[in-house]
Amino acid sequence: DAMVIQNPRYQVTQFGKPVTLSCSQTLNHNVMYWYQQKSSQAPKLLFHYYDKDFNNEADTPDNFQSRRPNTSFCFLDIRSPGLGDAAMYLCATSRVTGVRNTEAFFGQGTRLTVV
Amino acid sequence: QKEVEQDPGPLSVPEGAIVSLNCTYSNSAFQYFMWYRQYSRKGPELLMYTYSSGNKEDGRFTAQVDKSSKYISLFIRDSQPSDSATYLCAMRYGGTSYGKLTFGQGTILTVHP
Q: Which pLDDT score is estimated for A100?
């Protein structure tokens, strides 16, 4: 029944070593989002895909990239993780049709540790 | 000033109590309001999704929106230990917005038996 699936749930990476987090969805939603949530903080939007159109938030560091090869999958690439990038990374999806937008559904998150 | 303000708590109540969680916001462009529940080390789970000012009830949960005061609330009746979690308010613009959510900081709730 899982609708937004994130892998892995826990990821440990070395300082400066590229890492990729993945997200898949079975909802056929056209919008996919990546949020970063640091300990005891609110989730913060990094970027989103509206179909194939990539939209970056103005304050998202260049170190973060994303790919969406098809409707179902979206990847978050961190090119050179720093200690400050340790966080929970949340993938979410929603369906936008004209001016209508469904609520956002979140995956279980990937907790990234940088050592 | 943050766009969305939420008292982080922590809030500790006995089982069976009525819990009131609140958020205020500053941007009147927010049109859609949500409450998410987040258990430790898990993703946020949608509890309530509202648009209009007024009340919306779902089981033990009631969401209240007052757009004139820029204030939203979530009430939990007959609280249970399983309600212990962080509660996040979230909101987004209306119209042709793609749906970016702006979250409050989250309130940590503990319901003790």
A: 72
